[in-house]
Structures are given as C-alpha cells and as structure tokens.
Amino acid sequence: MQFLAEELEAMKQGGLYGTIRTLESPQGAWVTIEGRKVLNLCSNNYLGLCNHPRVVAKTKEYVDRFGVGPGAVRTIAGTMSPHLELERKLAAFKGAEAAILVQSGFCANLATIPTLAPAAEDRIFSDALNHASIIDACKLSKAPVVRYAHSDMDDLKAKLEEHRDAPGRKLLVTDGVFSMDGDVARLPEIVELCEAHGVILVVDDAHGEGVLGRGGRGIVDHFGLHGRVDVEVGTLSKAFGVMGGIAAGSAVLVDYLRQKARPNLFSSALTIPDVAANLAAVEILEESDELVTRLWDNGRFLKKELSALGFDTGHSETPITPVILGEASDAKTFSAKLFEAGIFATAIVFPTVPRGTARIRVMVSAAHSREDLRFAVDTFASVGREMGLLR
After folding, report:
1. Is 203 helix (H, G, I), strand (E, B) or coil?
2. The Aminotransferase class I/classII large domain covers which part of the protein (predicted)?
3. Which one of the listed residues 83, 94, 238, 303 is annotated catalytic?
C-alpha cells in the first residue's frame, strides 16, 4: 500500500492536496471553524435553509412521530408515508406527474442513467463538463459514451447525426447549471435536437432547483419546457439545505425506476429527519419567492463588485461566481489568506476544474447581508493586491 503515501505526497508537491476544514457550528452565512467565526462563501446553502427554524421544527415533529431510520430499502419495508408525502410535493413543485426519492443527487444519476440506457447497443451523449456523478453513472452502463464539446450545439448535432442509425436507445444527459462556471445549459436547443433525433433527455438540475424558474422550480420551468424534458434529476442538498435526490417525470418513468433502479432496490431509504426537513423546505419555497429573489440580488452585487476590481469571474449566468486565478498554488494561497482575514472560501483545483483554471468559487446565499458581501469584496481586494494579482 506504499503507493497511497507516494500519491498523497505527489499531490502535496503539486499543490493539489486539499485542506478539509471542520465546521463547529450550524451551516450558515457565518460559521465557526477552529474556534473562529468566519464568513462562509463556499457552501451550497443557496437559500439559507440548512438551519432554518421551520426546517428544524418539522424535523423534530416527524422524528417524534416516525422515529429516525427507515430500517430497509424502499422495496422491502423502508417506504414510509413521509417518503410518499415528499414525492407528491416534489412532483407538484416541479410540475411533473411523479417523482422518486433516493438517497442523494449522486444516487439519482446512478438510478437514472444506467437504468434507462443499460446495453452495449445503446448510446449516451454527455456534455464534456458534466458533473462527476453523471460521468460515474455513465460508466455503470455498458453503452458507449459520446462526449460533445461543452454547450456546443453544432458539435452535439454532428454527434447525433453520426449515431443516428445506431441500434438501441439513445440518451442525452446534461447539467442544467454547470457548477464550476455557473453557466446554464442551452436547454431549448437541446430539446429541439433530442426531439428531432428520437433521444431521451435527462437534465441534472442540481444547481438550478431553488435558483432558476418561478420560485426556484428549476431550469425546465425557467425555459417553459414542461412536458418536453423526459427526466429531471435533482438534489436536495443544495438550495433545499438538506440531503436526498430525486428523479421527476412521467408516472410510468417513476414506476419503472421504482422497479429497476439499483439505488432504490439495494440501498436503504432516506431517513425520516431528512424527509421532514425537505418537506419544510418545499413548503417555504411554495409560499414565497423572497429567498430566491434575495439570492439573485446578492449574486449580482458580488459578481459586479469583484469584476470591477479586475478579477476574472468567467461567464457565469447564475449566483455562482468563479474567481479564476489560474495556477493551483495561487488559488491555494489566496484561499489561505482569505481564511486568515476571516473568509471561508475554498480553492478549486484540478481535477475538479481543468489545469490552468484554478479558482475560488464564491457561493453566495440568501442568508448573506449586504454588509457581509461588502466585507467579502474589501477582503478579496486586499488579498488580491497583496498577492500582486490586482493593479
């Protein structure tokens, strides 16, 4: 097992070894790490729901009523009435006929992609910058994976034409919002191409739910494409502030996944505290778009201010704000200096992003105040000048 130590040392020498910090407080706009209160700019807690009083209260209520663990997989003895309650609410929220609840967004891709395109004669078309969970889910299928250049509709069309006469099923999978750059999939064009070529369309809306669409209903709602996207895959660990994953679509799709998807068949059901917390999160989003509006206001403010300082914030179309620094060593140093100054913002380096594009991915939340964000801008400016990255 000597290779383990050798590879870890190589990562350290190459500036690719990550420092994993431990939170000693609830997730929020400010968190406690190593006994210090720091501004949190790197969580996926888009709407500030991780520690919302209604979410906490609902969890306590349901634990008192139903206990904690489901005790089994969904298909044996693990389906409890709160699971079905949440599935109904999520389907209605997404504007879909039905939804299936699994353990995580990662598991939702594992449940969907290899189940719908399992055979060697099938084809899976995948955006070059899709999330690792999509990549791993594709690997579980025997179908060859055809990668198309990121959001390049000409390349996608050419690949679809090239494989038009291939036997078997054809499935296209794309992120809705690409998590490292914050850009949005060209979904209307993708839908047109899939319809023209008889291709099943799966959209992973992990960073779109709670962010895009009416009151955070996601990318399909954002583009008005209800009924034209076959499968919406999602996670409940970001804007919803909890844990869990879903696949939403037609009733027959969900029935099929219940019978055949391996995460549903061979891994225990989501716990009752998770289910209860998610129920509260959905209810909050159904009642008001206030948190979504505040998130976007915060995102626009921070992006504008950081860009004005001279930072490269890429081409994000969402509140995700990448501050692209280039070299992994610079990103690591920048992150460390931010932490010393009171800001928790992790460096993102290869293999999460391509070499030469290391960055601080700044993640704002509806929980941040304008004063929080002004402190962030001033601190980024100070560190950038100290490192010679700004004039």
Report:
1. strand
2. 37-379
3. 238
Terminal C-alpha separation, the chain: 48
Dihedral over Cα of 354, 355, 356, 360: its sign? positive
Per the CB < 8 A criterion, the answer to whether 55 and 281 are in contact is yes
Instruction: Determine if the pTM surpasses 0.90.
Output: yes
333: three-class secondary structure by DSSP: helix
Active site annotation includes 238: yes
> Which part of the chain has CATH 3.90.1150.10?
13-42+289-386
Q: Could you tell me if residue 165 is left (phi over 0), alpha (psi between -120 and 50 degrees) or otherwise beta?
A: alpha
Calpha distance 376→60 (Å, rounded): 35
- Kindly report the number of other CB atoms within 10 A of residue 280's CB atom: 23
| CATH class held by domain 53-287 | alpha beta
Query: Class of 13-42+289-386 per CATH?
Result: alpha beta
Q: How confident is the model at residue 53 (pLDDT cuts 50, 70, 90)?
A: very high
Choosing from 43, 133, 179, 316, the catalytic residue is 179
Q: What is the crossing angle of helices 370-386 and 328-340, to 10°?
A: 130
Distance CA 42, CA 347 (A): 9
Known catalytic membership, residue 365: no
Q: Strands across the sheet with 98-102, in order?
A: 98-102, 245-249, 231-235, 200-204, 170-175, 123-127, 145-148
Catalytic residue among 83, 159, 170, 207: 207
CATH 3.40.640.10, the chain: domain bounds: 53-287
Distance set, CA 111 to CA 227, 267, 328 (Å) = 21, 11, 34
Residue 17: pLDDT band (50, 70, 90) is confident
DSSP state of 23: B
pLDDT in tens, 214-266: 999 999 999 999 999 999 999 999 999 999 999 999 999 999 999 999 999 99
| Six-digit token string for 264 | 């549903």
